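Table S7 (text form). Paired inputs.
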Amino acid sequence: MTETPSYRVWALPGIPEVRPGDDLVKLLATAATADGTPGLADGDVLVVTSKIVSKAEGRVVEAVDREAAIDAETVRVVARRGTLRIVENRLGLVMAAAGVDASNTPSGTVLLLPEDPDASARALRAGLREALGVDVGVLITDTAGRPWRSGLTDMTIGAAGVRVLDDLRGGTDTHGNPLNVTVVATADELAAAGDLVKGKAGGLPVAVVRGLPHVVDEAAEDARALVRGAESDMFRLGTSEAVREALSLRRTVREFTDDPVDPGAVRRAVAAALTAPAPHHTTPWRFVLLESAESRTRLLDAMRDAWIADLRRDGRSEASIARRVRRGDVLRNAPYLAVPCLVMDGSHDYPDARRAAAEREMFVVATGAGVQNFLVALAGERLGSAWVSSTMFCRDVVREVLSLPEEWDPMGAVAIGRAAGAPRERGGAGAGRVRRGAVGVPRPRPFSPSYLPQLPLGVPPGGAPSFSRGCAPRPRSAAAPRWAGGAAPTPRRGLRPLHPTSGAPPWPPFGATPRTPQPRSARLSSNAGRAEIARPDLKSSPGRTMQPGRAPSARPALEDSARRALQGARGAAPMRAPRERSPEQGSRGRSPRRGAGAEPRPPRGARTLGPTARSAGPARPAPRGGGTGAQPLRKR
């Protein structure tokens, strides 16, 4: 008759309170050989709580130093909720508070985990063999919570002479099915069995398991084999921590392996791009996926020829052209390409160039947010990427080669693949790991697979690209103006922008030729004479200025700021307040000249309140620092 598998487990009584420096082997041997106990035999497994090991090793600290002790034991924060921290400690264990515990220890003290639990287990096993002549396994355990499960259980943190893992891969089950991933955590099962008889408050820190001699093995590996490595850990971070980590995980990769890219991973990244913020509830992104080598080569060859023609027209030497063309190797060597495109579907129509340009810039910014989401999602799929702007310089060529609609504007190309090596550390201030909590999380938008009516997308024979459109926004009127890249928008009447060129926006609109920048001193000097000055409203509250028809805003006196900027640019002496004028001179007298420049005046049509204002009532005294331009009203 076949014997039914079974084992026996009991707690070991008679162990006194352990203090720093106690001989733990002697205490265990005495308790195991006491009258009325079964003793110890070859093949037994001793399950020892880590607390008595920590006490014997003197791993006791004052409770006031608990947070400092947690910091010292922490390698990385996995999750944080209020004051609770789930961290990875220096032993590689993911535990609450790094395993620093205030239970079963005298009041006012906390316990750290043993310095090296595996070494402690080996010392106990060797000491018991010498003292009692028995070959036993030793496990050192601690209590911890588990993901997805409520409640606590004991797990093994140190082991000696015990097969901590039972690898069944390569075998079959009772039905003949192959076992491909089954690895049993035997040591943790023994730890949990021992905890059933030890308890948490009974003063029984050691249990003995008998009847499983096959788990005792002299050559068994230690408990570190139970710690899952980072490369195979699918749940390495908490939810919010994973979001922040994903932002820093995205790195520009310029060298890729030849491993194929999973098209499904790219499509999931496209779905993530659709959650980026966008104007007017649109999705102004289209992603062209180049999944065949033929389609990638055809596009890159056409772009190269166009780039070479442009450089030759610029008068570049052939050596210089060759160097610049080689920069495109990052795209040519990638096993997968995606071309993000901007579309203006759903944009608003404006009759003037200024607002039309602002509308387009808004869509450009949204496209950048969508591409950022795309890159971050690729990093989450363990795919490297490099966003290269080259398609923006030859949009007509890209549209022709890929047969794209005229209204699709390519916004660079993204090389995608497995990174050939670890990325370099980020340079500059704050290089390396991102500080926890330093990265904001973009506002989520509702997402449903219905947003992607054309996903998954196949690639037809011949290497034609596939298109990922996202949801269909409302159509854009054909009569809507588009920025031609020439004339600058007209500024609002009554205001002059802070820019060296009067009447031009602070930045050139999308597609316009950028102006030659001026030196800082010249820019400040030019700006000082044309500072923007708001028109004060007599009905506004003191300390405020406001535009006609607009809500008041607490703006500084820009004329004073401009004067100070002019002073700093020219190194002039501190300016004096304007000299007093007699009533006979009137309020339209000019201010005296100072240095090489005239004092700034408000633009035509601006009304000022102050010593030169033509308003009822006595004149206000000149503000400190001088100035006859518009000043905000101030409480007296």
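Next pair, protein 2 of 2.
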Amino acid sequence: MIFDAREREDYERALSEAFEAAQAAAREGKPIVFLLTQGDLLGQRGAPRAILANALLSGMRTLAAEGHRANAVATGPDADPGDVEHWIALLQDGRGVAGELVRVGAVHVGKVQP
């Protein structure tokens, strides 16, 4: 299951859909990958987007702690689509990886305000 939250603006619905899709995938033993943006994780595109991205990240970590193959990919503005697809495929394969956040084309730097 791949859930792409990168450009969602219907935050409440997105969270509900992600929960339902992840729950179904977990029951079936399928891998779960959440697609997020690095900017949303850092709150650089507003509070609602940050809340959604971090809620999904928290959910992913909880699923992994419960033994499910759940991971996330955070993309930056310069992320190469081929690189993103590569990491999605690797995380879907699993092979002992769970609870990981992979940053693709993303700089892990916080928001600086004057």
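The beta strands are 2-4, 32-37, 70-75, 101-104.
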